Amino acid sequence: MRKSLSIKTFNITQMINILIADDHTMFVDGIESILKVEADMLVVGSCYDGPSVIEFVKKNNVDIILLDVNLPGMSGIEVCKELNLHHPSVSVLAISMFNEESFVSEILNNGAKGYILKNTGREELLKAIRTIAGGDSYFSKDVTETIMKGLMNQRKASSKNSAFFPKLSRREKEVLKLIAQEFTTQEIADSLFISLKTVESHRSSLLSKLNARNSVGLIRIAMENNLLE
Prior knowledge:
Layout: E1 7-9, E2 16-21, H1 25-35, E3 41-47, H2 50-59, E4 64-68, H3 76-86, E5 91-96, H4 101-109, E6 114-117, H5 122-133, E7 138-139, H6 141-157, H7 170-180, H8 185-192, H9 196-209, H10 215-224
Parallel strand pairs: 2-3, 2-4, 4-5, 5-6, 6-7
Antiparallel strand pairs: 1-3
Helix pairs in contact: 2-3, 6-10, 7-9, 8-9
């Protein structure tokens, strides 16, 4: 039976503060049972509809939201858009049973930092949370394949000419290729023997030069214009 209240609140401490947003109580309880034994994670609350997520974030300290794409009252995509506009410090990890390019691309374009499927195992869920908490994006393997297929289709249909793009330095191209291979910031730094600050500098330069909003946008533009070859 669904809970009568739309919000449940817990004690908050300093660590990765996580809000679970899903309209299925059994799923919420299952995620909570996984996270509560992790020393660096704290479930600070759970919401069962979209508007409750927005209200909770206004009043509580939240680092990451595990957000279902389909929520009553306000879709996960709408919630993500609102959070991106007014609470950009809160990171969203989308969790859904749908692995369709339209769902994935829309919520990522509205600010989500990651997307995993509901059949994801415990270890991957924890890895996704910690990766996003560390400032990087995370996508499960199946979702990554969906994103890449979508980008390939866009590339085939695109008639843009890469000659009109600003010139990328050798190092920027190296960083771009590693981003496309799903390397984290730390992994890029280790691979190229450069500092994290330098990686972030190259990433910022790429975002500016290619007029992209996030890493997904970088990969899309790069593939559409043959910049990874």
